[in-house]
Design brief:
This protein is mainly beta. The protein is built from two helices and 24 strands. InterPro entries: Aspartic_peptidase_A1, PEPTIDASE_A1, Peptidase_aspartic_dom_sf, TAXi_C, TAXi_N.
Length: about 375
Protein backbone atom coordinates (compact mmCIF):
# COMPACT_ATOMS: atom_id res chain seq x y z
CA UNK A 1 0.00 0.00 0.00
CA UNK A 2 1.75 3.13 -1.21
CA UNK A 3 0.73 6.78 -1.24
CA UNK A 4 0.29 8.49 -4.63
CA UNK A 5 2.10 11.81 -4.96
CA UNK A 6 2.21 14.05 -8.04
CA UNK A 7 4.35 16.48 -6.06
CA UNK A 8 7.46 14.26 -6.05
CA UNK A 9 9.19 11.96 -8.53
CA UNK A 10 10.67 8.88 -6.90
CA UNK A 11 8.78 5.68 -6.14
CA UNK A 12 10.24 4.11 -2.99
CA UNK A 13 9.43 1.22 -0.65
CA UNK A 14 10.61 0.42 2.89
CA UNK A 15 13.51 -1.95 2.39
CA UNK A 16 15.39 -4.14 4.90
CA UNK A 17 15.23 -1.48 7.60
CA UNK A 18 14.32 -1.18 11.26
CA UNK A 19 12.16 1.59 12.68
CA UNK A 20 11.35 3.10 9.28
CA UNK A 21 7.61 2.35 9.15
CA UNK A 22 4.71 3.41 11.40
CA UNK A 23 4.04 1.38 14.54
CA UNK A 24 1.23 -1.18 14.14
CA UNK A 25 -1.21 0.94 16.14
CA UNK A 26 -1.03 3.85 13.67
CA UNK A 27 -1.19 1.77 10.50
CA UNK A 28 -3.60 -0.99 11.46
CA UNK A 29 -5.26 -0.92 8.03
CA UNK A 30 -1.92 -1.31 6.26
CA UNK A 31 0.51 -3.67 8.02
CA UNK A 32 4.19 -2.95 7.58
CA UNK A 33 5.55 -4.44 4.35
CA UNK A 34 9.13 -4.55 3.17
CA UNK A 35 10.78 -5.03 -0.19
CA UNK A 36 13.75 -7.41 0.11
CA UNK A 37 16.00 -7.34 -2.99
CA UNK A 38 17.78 -10.59 -2.13
CA UNK A 39 14.47 -12.48 -2.33
CA UNK A 40 13.75 -11.30 -5.87
CA UNK A 41 15.24 -13.12 -8.84
CA UNK A 42 14.69 -10.03 -11.00
CA UNK A 43 16.04 -7.35 -8.66
CA UNK A 44 19.09 -5.40 -9.83
CA UNK A 45 20.96 -2.58 -8.16
CA UNK A 46 21.35 0.68 -10.06
CA UNK A 47 25.05 1.51 -10.62
CA UNK A 48 26.53 4.91 -9.95
CA UNK A 49 27.16 5.56 -13.65
CA UNK A 50 23.45 5.31 -14.45
CA UNK A 51 21.79 8.38 -15.98
CA UNK A 52 19.22 8.07 -13.18
CA UNK A 53 21.77 8.38 -10.41
CA UNK A 54 21.51 11.90 -9.05
CA UNK A 55 23.95 11.38 -6.16
CA UNK A 56 27.00 10.11 -8.04
CA UNK A 57 29.34 12.11 -5.81
CA UNK A 58 28.17 10.02 -2.84
CA UNK A 59 28.86 6.67 -4.51
CA UNK A 60 32.38 6.18 -3.20
CA UNK A 61 31.33 3.98 -0.30
CA UNK A 62 28.79 1.82 -2.13
CA UNK A 63 28.42 0.08 -5.46
CA UNK A 64 24.76 1.06 -5.69
CA UNK A 65 23.42 4.53 -6.39
CA UNK A 66 22.11 6.20 -3.22
CA UNK A 67 19.06 8.45 -3.07
CA UNK A 68 17.61 10.91 -0.59
CA UNK A 69 14.20 12.55 -0.90
CA UNK A 70 13.28 15.47 1.38
CA UNK A 71 9.62 16.49 1.56
CA UNK A 72 7.74 19.65 2.53
CA UNK A 73 6.60 18.39 5.93
CA UNK A 74 9.08 19.18 8.68
CA UNK A 75 11.91 16.64 9.02
CA UNK A 76 10.24 14.24 6.56
CA UNK A 77 12.56 12.28 4.29
CA UNK A 78 13.39 8.90 2.79
CA UNK A 79 16.86 7.64 1.89
CA UNK A 80 18.44 4.43 0.68
CA UNK A 81 19.62 3.14 -2.70
CA UNK A 82 18.10 2.64 -6.14
CA UNK A 83 17.07 -0.74 -7.57
CA UNK A 84 15.35 -2.06 -10.68
CA UNK A 85 12.62 -4.69 -10.69
CA UNK A 86 9.43 -5.71 -12.50
CA UNK A 87 6.14 -3.88 -11.95
CA UNK A 88 2.97 -5.65 -13.06
CA UNK A 89 0.28 -3.53 -14.70
CA UNK A 90 -3.17 -4.66 -15.84
CA UNK A 91 -4.82 -3.38 -19.02
CA UNK A 92 -8.32 -1.86 -18.71
CA UNK A 93 -9.97 -4.24 -21.17
CA UNK A 94 -12.91 -6.61 -20.81
CA UNK A 95 -10.24 -9.31 -20.79
CA UNK A 96 -7.38 -7.70 -18.85
CA UNK A 97 -3.83 -8.60 -19.74
CA UNK A 98 -0.81 -8.20 -17.50
CA UNK A 99 2.13 -6.10 -18.60
CA UNK A 100 5.61 -6.51 -17.15
CA UNK A 101 7.42 -3.19 -16.82
CA UNK A 102 11.05 -2.91 -15.77
CA UNK A 103 11.11 0.14 -13.50
CA UNK A 104 13.43 1.90 -11.10
CA UNK A 105 12.59 2.75 -7.50
CA UNK A 106 14.12 3.44 -4.13
CA UNK A 107 14.97 0.77 -1.59
CA UNK A 108 14.24 2.89 1.48
CA UNK A 109 16.53 2.18 4.43
CA UNK A 110 15.74 5.28 6.53
CA UNK A 111 12.43 7.16 6.80
CA UNK A 112 11.80 10.17 9.03
CA UNK A 113 9.06 12.61 10.02
CA UNK A 114 5.51 12.06 8.77
CA UNK A 115 6.43 8.69 7.27
CA UNK A 116 6.65 7.39 10.83
CA UNK A 117 3.11 8.65 11.45
CA UNK A 118 1.42 6.61 8.69
CA UNK A 119 1.69 9.27 5.95
CA UNK A 120 2.77 6.51 3.55
CA UNK A 121 2.29 3.08 5.17
CA UNK A 122 4.39 0.99 2.77
CA UNK A 123 6.07 3.64 0.68
CA UNK A 124 5.39 6.45 -1.75
CA UNK A 125 4.62 6.34 -5.47
CA UNK A 126 6.10 9.50 -7.01
CA UNK A 127 4.26 10.60 -10.14
CA UNK A 128 6.17 13.78 -10.95
CA UNK A 129 7.63 15.13 -14.17
CA UNK A 130 11.25 14.00 -13.75
CA UNK A 131 12.60 11.09 -15.82
CA UNK A 132 12.90 8.82 -12.77
CA UNK A 133 9.13 8.76 -12.07
CA UNK A 134 7.18 5.65 -13.12
CA UNK A 135 5.00 7.48 -15.71
CA UNK A 136 8.19 8.83 -17.32
CA UNK A 137 9.83 5.40 -17.39
CA UNK A 138 6.72 3.75 -18.88
CA UNK A 139 6.56 6.41 -21.61
CA UNK A 140 10.31 6.23 -22.32
CA UNK A 141 10.01 2.47 -22.85
CA UNK A 142 7.03 2.92 -25.17
CA UNK A 143 4.72 0.95 -22.86
CA UNK A 144 2.16 3.75 -22.38
CA UNK A 145 1.39 7.22 -23.64
CA UNK A 146 3.11 9.99 -21.71
CA UNK A 147 0.01 10.69 -19.64
CA UNK A 148 -1.93 9.32 -16.68
CA UNK A 149 -5.16 10.01 -14.85
CA UNK A 150 -6.36 9.76 -11.28
CA UNK A 151 -9.88 9.72 -9.94
CA UNK A 152 -10.66 10.38 -6.28
CA UNK A 153 -13.95 9.07 -4.84
CA UNK A 154 -15.62 10.67 -1.82
CA UNK A 155 -15.57 7.30 -0.06
CA UNK A 156 -11.79 6.96 -0.45
CA UNK A 157 -12.00 4.59 -3.43
CA UNK A 158 -10.27 5.74 -6.59
CA UNK A 159 -8.33 4.75 -9.68
CA UNK A 160 -5.04 5.52 -11.40
CA UNK A 161 -4.65 4.78 -15.12
CA UNK A 162 -1.25 5.01 -16.81
CA UNK A 163 -1.43 6.07 -20.46
CA UNK A 164 -4.88 7.65 -20.07
CA UNK A 165 -5.11 10.82 -22.17
CA UNK A 166 -8.67 11.62 -21.13
CA UNK A 167 -11.65 12.16 -23.41
CA UNK A 168 -12.66 14.64 -26.10
CA UNK A 169 -15.36 16.15 -23.88
CA UNK A 170 -13.15 16.91 -20.87
CA UNK A 171 -12.26 20.42 -19.72
CA UNK A 172 -8.63 21.43 -20.18
CA UNK A 173 -6.03 24.07 -19.36
CA UNK A 174 -2.30 24.33 -20.18
CA UNK A 175 0.26 22.92 -17.77
CA UNK A 176 2.97 25.40 -16.75
CA UNK A 177 5.92 23.07 -16.20
CA UNK A 178 8.88 24.92 -14.69
CA UNK A 179 12.02 23.23 -16.03
CA UNK A 180 14.13 24.09 -12.96
CA UNK A 181 11.59 22.75 -10.46
CA UNK A 182 9.13 20.66 -12.52
CA UNK A 183 5.62 20.50 -11.07
CA UNK A 184 2.11 20.16 -12.42
CA UNK A 185 1.15 23.83 -12.23
CA UNK A 186 -1.67 25.74 -13.92
CA UNK A 187 -2.70 29.39 -14.10
CA UNK A 188 -5.91 30.40 -12.32
CA UNK A 189 -7.53 33.51 -13.78
CA UNK A 190 -10.57 33.75 -11.52
CA UNK A 191 -12.47 32.25 -8.58
CA UNK A 192 -16.22 31.65 -8.46
CA UNK A 193 -17.90 31.28 -5.05
CA UNK A 194 -21.65 30.90 -5.43
CA UNK A 195 -22.69 33.86 -7.59
CA UNK A 196 -19.60 35.91 -6.80
CA UNK A 197 -16.68 36.11 -9.21
CA UNK A 198 -13.20 37.49 -8.61
CA UNK A 199 -10.64 38.05 -11.37
CA UNK A 200 -7.03 37.33 -10.44
CA UNK A 201 -4.03 35.55 -11.88
CA UNK A 202 -2.06 33.08 -9.77
CA UNK A 203 -0.03 29.96 -10.44
CA UNK A 204 -1.26 26.87 -8.61
CA UNK A 205 0.29 23.42 -8.19
CA UNK A 206 -1.86 20.29 -8.43
CA UNK A 207 -0.46 17.97 -5.76
CA UNK A 208 -2.19 14.71 -4.80
CA UNK A 209 0.38 14.33 -2.02
CA UNK A 210 -1.18 17.22 -0.10
CA UNK A 211 -4.43 16.27 1.61
CA UNK A 212 -5.99 19.72 1.69
CA UNK A 213 -5.78 22.87 -0.39
CA UNK A 214 -3.37 25.68 0.50
CA UNK A 215 -3.97 29.20 -0.82
CA UNK A 216 -2.20 32.51 -0.27
CA UNK A 217 -3.87 35.91 -0.38
CA UNK A 218 -5.73 37.33 -2.19
CA UNK A 219 -7.20 33.97 -3.28
CA UNK A 220 -7.52 32.64 0.28
CA UNK A 221 -9.40 35.63 1.68
CA UNK A 222 -11.72 35.88 -1.31
CA UNK A 223 -12.78 32.22 -1.13
CA UNK A 224 -13.14 32.06 2.64
CA UNK A 225 -15.00 35.38 2.96
CA UNK A 226 -17.30 34.54 0.05
CA UNK A 227 -17.95 31.09 1.47
CA UNK A 228 -18.68 32.38 4.98
CA UNK A 229 -21.00 35.15 3.76
CA UNK A 230 -23.16 32.59 1.96
CA UNK A 231 -23.31 29.91 4.68
CA UNK A 232 -26.36 29.87 6.94
CA UNK A 233 -24.83 28.10 9.94
CA UNK A 234 -23.19 28.89 13.26
CA UNK A 235 -19.44 29.35 12.94
CA UNK A 236 -17.46 27.20 15.36
CA UNK A 237 -15.11 28.92 17.78
CA UNK A 238 -11.42 28.92 16.85
CA UNK A 239 -9.71 25.66 17.81
CA UNK A 240 -5.93 25.32 17.80
CA UNK A 241 -6.24 21.62 16.99
CA UNK A 242 -7.92 22.40 13.66
CA UNK A 243 -5.90 24.05 10.87
CA UNK A 244 -8.99 25.46 9.15
CA UNK A 245 -10.36 28.92 10.02
CA UNK A 246 -13.90 28.43 8.74
CA UNK A 247 -15.71 25.63 10.56
CA UNK A 248 -19.41 25.34 11.38
CA UNK A 249 -21.32 23.40 14.01
CA UNK A 250 -23.31 20.37 12.86
CA UNK A 251 -26.45 19.20 14.59
CA UNK A 252 -26.94 15.53 15.39
CA UNK A 253 -29.11 15.11 12.29
CA UNK A 254 -26.72 16.77 9.83
CA UNK A 255 -23.93 15.15 7.80
CA UNK A 256 -22.94 18.50 6.29
CA UNK A 257 -24.27 22.01 5.76
CA UNK A 258 -25.58 23.82 2.71
CA UNK A 259 -22.62 25.53 1.07
CA UNK A 260 -22.04 27.68 -2.01
CA UNK A 261 -20.34 26.08 -5.00
CA UNK A 262 -16.65 26.80 -5.57
CA UNK A 263 -14.96 26.75 -8.98
CA UNK A 264 -11.60 27.86 -10.29
CA UNK A 265 -11.50 29.59 -13.68
CA UNK A 266 -8.37 28.49 -15.51
CA UNK A 267 -6.33 29.85 -18.41
CA UNK A 268 -8.46 29.27 -21.50
CA UNK A 269 -11.72 29.81 -19.62
CA UNK A 270 -12.54 26.31 -18.35
CA UNK A 271 -13.93 25.96 -14.82
CA UNK A 272 -12.45 23.42 -12.42
CA UNK A 273 -15.15 22.46 -9.86
CA UNK A 274 -14.29 21.88 -6.21
CA UNK A 275 -17.01 19.27 -5.72
CA UNK A 276 -16.24 18.36 -2.13
CA UNK A 277 -13.95 20.98 -0.52
CA UNK A 278 -15.23 20.39 3.02
CA UNK A 279 -14.14 18.18 5.90
CA UNK A 280 -16.27 16.78 8.73
CA UNK A 281 -14.31 16.67 11.99
CA UNK A 282 -15.21 14.98 15.24
CA UNK A 283 -14.56 17.42 18.09
CA UNK A 284 -15.61 14.99 20.78
CA UNK A 285 -18.19 12.25 21.16
CA UNK A 286 -21.43 13.26 19.38
CA UNK A 287 -20.03 16.69 18.48
CA UNK A 288 -19.00 17.49 14.92
CA UNK A 289 -18.05 20.45 12.76
CA UNK A 290 -17.98 20.96 9.01
CA UNK A 291 -14.90 22.89 7.82
CA UNK A 292 -13.93 24.49 4.57
CA UNK A 293 -10.72 22.49 4.11
CA UNK A 294 -8.46 25.28 2.89
CA UNK A 295 -5.33 26.28 4.80
CA UNK A 296 -3.88 29.77 4.55
CA UNK A 297 -0.47 29.74 2.92
CA UNK A 298 2.20 32.42 3.03
CA UNK A 299 3.36 31.92 -0.55
CA UNK A 300 2.53 28.71 -2.44
CA UNK A 301 -0.88 27.90 -3.89
CA UNK A 302 -1.51 24.14 -3.83
CA UNK A 303 -4.65 22.38 -5.03
CA UNK A 304 -4.75 19.36 -2.76
CA UNK A 305 -6.52 16.04 -2.99
CA UNK A 306 -9.75 17.34 -1.41
CA UNK A 307 -10.36 19.72 -4.35
CA UNK A 308 -9.93 16.80 -6.81
CA UNK A 309 -12.59 14.57 -5.25
CA UNK A 310 -15.27 13.35 -7.69
CA UNK A 311 -13.22 14.35 -10.72
CA UNK A 312 -11.06 12.35 -13.12
CA UNK A 313 -7.91 14.47 -13.42
CA UNK A 314 -5.69 13.85 -16.44
CA UNK A 315 -2.00 14.76 -16.26
CA UNK A 316 -1.17 14.80 -19.97
CA UNK A 317 2.58 15.40 -20.08
CA UNK A 318 2.74 14.82 -23.85
CA UNK A 319 0.31 17.64 -24.75
CA UNK A 320 1.25 19.61 -21.60
CA UNK A 321 -2.34 20.01 -20.49
CA UNK A 322 -4.32 19.27 -17.34
CA UNK A 323 -7.72 17.77 -18.13
CA UNK A 324 -10.70 16.97 -15.91
CA UNK A 325 -14.26 15.68 -15.93
CA UNK A 326 -16.81 14.80 -13.26
CA UNK A 327 -16.63 11.05 -12.92
CA UNK A 328 -17.74 8.03 -10.94
CA UNK A 329 -14.37 7.09 -9.54
CA UNK A 330 -15.49 3.61 -8.54
CA UNK A 331 -15.98 2.64 -12.16
CA UNK A 332 -13.54 2.33 -15.04
CA UNK A 333 -15.88 3.92 -17.54
CA UNK A 334 -18.91 5.53 -15.86
CA UNK A 335 -18.85 9.28 -16.63
CA UNK A 336 -20.21 12.31 -14.94
CA UNK A 337 -23.94 11.89 -14.23
CA UNK A 338 -23.71 10.21 -10.87
CA UNK A 339 -24.57 11.17 -7.31
CA UNK A 340 -22.12 10.14 -4.58
CA UNK A 341 -24.21 8.73 -1.75
CA UNK A 342 -24.65 11.17 1.10
CA UNK A 343 -24.13 9.88 4.60
CA UNK A 344 -27.08 9.89 6.98
CA UNK A 345 -25.36 11.21 10.08
CA UNK A 346 -22.15 12.99 11.05
CA UNK A 347 -20.62 9.90 12.57
CA UNK A 348 -20.71 8.20 9.19
CA UNK A 349 -19.82 11.22 7.10
CA UNK A 350 -17.24 10.77 4.42
CA UNK A 351 -13.71 12.03 5.10
CA UNK A 352 -14.45 12.09 8.84
CA UNK A 353 -11.48 13.04 11.00
CA UNK A 354 -11.21 12.93 14.78
CA UNK A 355 -9.54 15.68 16.77
CA UNK A 356 -7.73 14.35 19.80
CA UNK A 357 -7.11 16.33 22.97
CA UNK A 358 -3.64 14.78 23.16
CA UNK A 359 -0.59 16.20 21.31
CA UNK A 360 -1.16 18.13 18.05
CA UNK A 361 -2.93 16.04 15.42
CA UNK A 362 -0.82 14.96 12.46
CA UNK A 363 -3.44 14.21 9.80
CA UNK A 364 -3.36 17.74 8.44
CA UNK A 365 0.38 18.10 7.97
CA UNK A 366 1.40 19.84 4.75
CA UNK A 367 2.36 16.62 3.01
CA UNK A 368 -0.22 14.27 4.53
CA UNK A 369 -0.86 11.60 1.93
CA UNK A 370 -4.31 10.07 1.60
CA UNK A 371 -4.70 8.12 -1.62
CA UNK A 372 -3.18 4.66 -1.76
CA UNK A 373 -2.73 1.91 -4.35
CA UNK A 374 -1.59 -1.69 -4.31
CA UNK A 375 1.68 -2.32 -6.14
CA UNK A 376 2.67 -5.80 -7.28
CA UNK A 377 6.36 -6.47 -7.87
CA UNK A 378 7.92 -9.64 -9.21
CA UNK A 379 9.13 -10.65 -5.78
CA UNK A 380 7.78 -11.52 -2.34
CA UNK A 381 6.80 -8.51 -0.21
CA UNK A 382 6.84 -9.17 3.53
Amino acid sequence: MVALDTGSDLFWLPCQCDGCTPPPSSAASAPASFYIPSLSSTSQSVPCNSDFCGLRKECSTTSSCPYKMVYVSADTSSSGFLVEDVLYLSTEDTRPQFLKAQIMFGCGEVQTGSFLDAAAPNGLFGLGVDMISVPSILAQKGLTSNSFSMCFGRDGIGRISFGDQGSTDQEETPLDINQKHPTYAITITGIVVGNNIMDLEVSTIFDTGTSFTYLADPAYTYITDGFHNQVQANRHAADSRIPFEYCYDLSSSEARIQTPSISLRTAGGSLFPAIDPGQVISIQQHEYVYCLAIVKSTKLNIIGQNFMTGVRVVFDRERKILGWKKFNCKSRSTPENYSPQETKNPAGASQLRHVSSSPPVVWWHNNSLLLFMFVFLHCPIF
